[in-house]
């Protein structure tokens, strides 16, 4: 039973990330900022800036009496150097706008809710690089 729950959690999270990636790669405003530099985790070559990366993700049980479900928190990070804080925030704002305007449909699950949960920005230890983050919260029925 535990193995089935774990695989269901992974499948729902993966379906959400894939649907978001497809949406973001097709968004013109975001493409004007990062091109196709949308990665699953940090890219192998971090010198190609700015970029957007899927970062931490967490799923929790959100089942009801008659249906399985998950609450998924999915964090995206925009990293910029030359454009500074403003560029990192512009990337995150483009992500938020694309998600707000979309009707994404993750394969194999029902997306009940998708909203912005948290946003932040920080300068990294090198003193030149900025990272802005956006955490999306989704409620998914399996």
Automatic annotation (TrEMBL):
Pfam family, one: Tail_completion_gp17
Protein's name according to its UniProt entry: Gene transfer agent protein
Record organism: Hartmannibacter diazotrophicus
């Amino acid at each position: 039973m535990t193995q089935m729950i774990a695989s269901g959690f992974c499948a729902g999270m993966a379906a959400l990330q894939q649907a978001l990636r497809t949406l973001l790669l097709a968004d013109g405003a975001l493409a004007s900022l990062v091109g196709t530099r949308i990665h699953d985790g940090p890219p192998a070559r971090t010198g190609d800036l700015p970029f957007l990366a899927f970062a931490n993700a967490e799923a929790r049980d959100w089942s009801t009496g008659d249906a399985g479900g998950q609450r998924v928190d999915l964090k995206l990070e925009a990293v910029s150097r030359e454009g500074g804080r403003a560029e990192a925030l512009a990337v995150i704002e483009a992500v938020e706008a694309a998600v707000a305007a979309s009707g994404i449909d993750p394969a194999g699950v029902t997306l009940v809710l998708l909203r912005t949960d948290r946003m932040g920005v920080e300068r990294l230890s090198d003193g030149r690089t900025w990272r802005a983050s956006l955490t999306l919260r989704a409620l998914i029925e399996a």
